């Protein structure tokens, strides 16, 4: 069972929800937490783990042999990512735009294309009590995160002792989020009761609908005055609000110190209970 | 000489489009006989990434000798420069006037990209 924690807008509390859920659920069982926000992973700041493994991840980038290339330009026409150009019968390649589709190599009539490996980043793993923790760290200046996100997910599949995977997704609705979310069985859409939160929630809801993933909403920093912003939308669209985590200065202070809210403030666990019940029901 | 000018409309009266990769049109002007034709750039205007790369390829396919535009990034520069295309950036206003300035050698050639690259 894979549960994606997604949001659309950044900073709504995806990692907060993922971490605190993981903490609650590991009191009873083994679970795996994946931090797939590889551009700026932050779960480790709260878990402070000693990593037991660090595995470098590479992607293929094409190289063109000037001797073999006839300058036919077929690869340039094929490339959907605009990373190739033909100048004076030679190929100029911009590997930072390459999505590693392999098309240029396949279409080349003279076998002028070979592949070399470029480091994308690393997958790290730590064991913390009942928690298998895996995250990815994108190499600085690298722009393509999906290959690394996929490796984080492959790595996490090794842990057969855990029935449940919680996937902390990147914000947004583009390729990295799709890579993190696409095979999830369920998605929790974390939002905040603000017009910005709602705007991006709508985009993220369209995304999970497109992916056919069942989902519900979690309102973080919930207040009586503002929740209607999200509630009206949820009602109009028949979307379940799974839980509301109240706005709390004390919780924000705990977070700012890199501590887990439910650990420091056990009274907050009740707000997570509807989610843990929902998850237990799904895992059954 | 053949010049490409990034343009917001398909005529000489319109202004230089400040963006190169995502310009709407390119005016291809021939200074030998003072004629021009227009190529559109819709495909690159809507590209998810690499608009500058493909716009550079697009104008290069017209065998141009010079480019007049607002801004030109490092990827387009890396393609046009070795192809021998002279690049003139920082320009705006009427296309007609810029072509006149070019003919009278009043434009200063850019020796490097004037904006940073963006990935997506």
Number of domains of chain B: 1
What is the CA-atom radius of gyration of chain A, in angstroms?
22 Å
The tally of beta strands of chain A, per DSSP, is: 11
Largest sheet of chain B: 5 strands, mixed
Give a nutshell description of this structure.
Chain A has helices at 14-25, 43-47, 74-78, 103-107, 146-156, 175-181, 195-210, 228-236, 249-256, 261-264, 269-283; strands at 2-6, 31-35, 53-64, 84-87, 90-93, 113-128, 131-138, 164-168, 186-191, 215-222, 241-246. Chain A is α/β, with parallel strands linked by helices and 284 residues long.
Blueprint (SSEs and pairs):
The complex is a heterodimer of chains A (about 280) and B (about 120).
Chain A: E1 2-6, H1 14-25, E2 31-35, H2 43-47, E3 53-64, H3 74-78, E4 84-87, E5 90-93, H4 103-107, E6 113-128, E7 131-138, H5 146-156, E8 164-168, H6 175-181, E9 186-191, H7 195-210, E10 215-222, H8 228-236, E11 241-246, H9 249-256, H10 261-264, H11 269-283
Parallel strand pairs in A: 1-8, 1-9, 2-7, 2-8, 9-10, 10-11
Antiparallel strand pairs in A: 3-6, 4-5, 6-7
Chain B: E1 2-7, E2 25-30, E3 35-40, H1 42-45, H2 51-60, E4 66-68, H3 74-80, E5 86-88, H4 95-103
Parallel strand pairs in B: 1-4, 4-5
Antiparallel strand pairs in B: 1-2, 2-3
Helix pairs in contact in B: 2-3
Tag the structure with descriptive keywords:
heterodimer, A: 284 residues, alpha/beta, Rossmann fold, Alpha-Beta Plaits, nine-stranded mixed β-sheet, B: 120 residues, Nucleotidyltransferase, domain 5, 20% strand, globular
Structural description of this entry:
- The complex is a heterodimer of chains A (284) and B (120).
- By secondary structure, chain A is of the alpha/beta class.
- Chain A has two domains: 2-57 and 122-283, Rossmann fold (3-Layer(aba) Sandwich); 66-111, 2-Layer Sandwich (Alpha-Beta Plaits), CATH 3.30.70.
- Chain A contains eleven helices and eleven strands.
- In chain A, β6 (113-128) and β7 (131-138) form a beta hairpin.
- The longest helix of chain A is centred in the last third of the chain and has 16 residues, at 195-210.
- The N and C termini of chain A lie close together (10 Å).
- Chain B has one domain: Nucleotidyltransferase, domain 5, CATH 3.30.420.130.
- The model of chain B has no long low-confidence stretch (mean pLDDT 93).
- The A-B interface holds A 76, 81-88, 92, 94, 96-97, 143, 174 and B 44, 47-51, 53-54, 56-57, 60, 75, 78-79, 82-83, 119-120.
């Amino acid at each position: 069972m894979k549960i994606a924690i997604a949001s659309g807008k950044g900073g709504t509390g995806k990692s907060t929800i993922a971490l605190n859920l993981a903490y609650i659920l590991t009191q009873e069982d083994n679970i795996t937490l994946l931090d797939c926000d590889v551009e700026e992973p932050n779960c480790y700041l709260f878990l402070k783990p000693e990593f037991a493994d660090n595995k470098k991840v590479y992607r293929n980038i094409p190289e063109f042999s000037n001797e073999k290339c006839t300058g036919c330009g077929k690869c340039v026409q094929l490339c959907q990512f605009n990373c190739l150009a033909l100048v004076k019968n030679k190929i100029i390649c911009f590997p930072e735009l390459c999505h590693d589709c392999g098309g240029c190599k396949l279409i080349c009539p003279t076998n002028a294309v070979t592949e070399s490996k470029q480091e994308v980043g690393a997958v790290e793993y730590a064991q913390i009590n009942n928690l298998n923790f895996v995250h990815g760290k994108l190499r600085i200046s690298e722009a393509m995160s999906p290959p690394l996100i996929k490796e984080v997910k492959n790595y996490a599949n090794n842990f057969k002792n855990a029935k449940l995977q919680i996937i902390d997704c990147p914000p947004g609705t583009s390729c990295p989020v799709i890579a993190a979310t696409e095979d999830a069985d369920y998605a929790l859409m974390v939002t905040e009761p603000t017009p910005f939160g709602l705007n991006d929630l709508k985009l993220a809801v369209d995304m999970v609908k497109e992916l056919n993933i069942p989902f519900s909403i979690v309102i973080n920093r919930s207040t009586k005055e503002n929740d209607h912003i999200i509630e009206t939308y949820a009602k109009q669209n028949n979307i379940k609000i799974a839980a509301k985590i109240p706005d709390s200065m004390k919780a924000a202070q705990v977070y700012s110190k890199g501590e887990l809210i439910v650990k420091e403030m056990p009274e907050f666990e009740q707000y997570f209970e509807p989610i843990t019940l929902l998850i237990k029901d799904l895992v059954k | 000489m053949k010049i490409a000018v990034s343009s917001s409309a398909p005529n000489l009266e319109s202004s230089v489009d400040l963006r190169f990769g995502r310009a709407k049109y390119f005016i291809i002007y021939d200074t030998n006989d003072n004629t021009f034709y227009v190529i559109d750039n819709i495909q690159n205007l809507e590209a998810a990434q690499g608009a500058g790369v493909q716009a550079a390829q697009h104008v290069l396919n017209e065998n141009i000798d010079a480019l007049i535009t607002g801004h030109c990034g490092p990827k387009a520069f890396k393609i046009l420069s070795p192809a021998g295309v002279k690049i003139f950036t920082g320009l705006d206003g009427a296309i007609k006037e810029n072509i006149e300035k070019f003919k009278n050698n009043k434009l200063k050639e850019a020796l490097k990209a004037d904006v940073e690259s963006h990935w997506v």
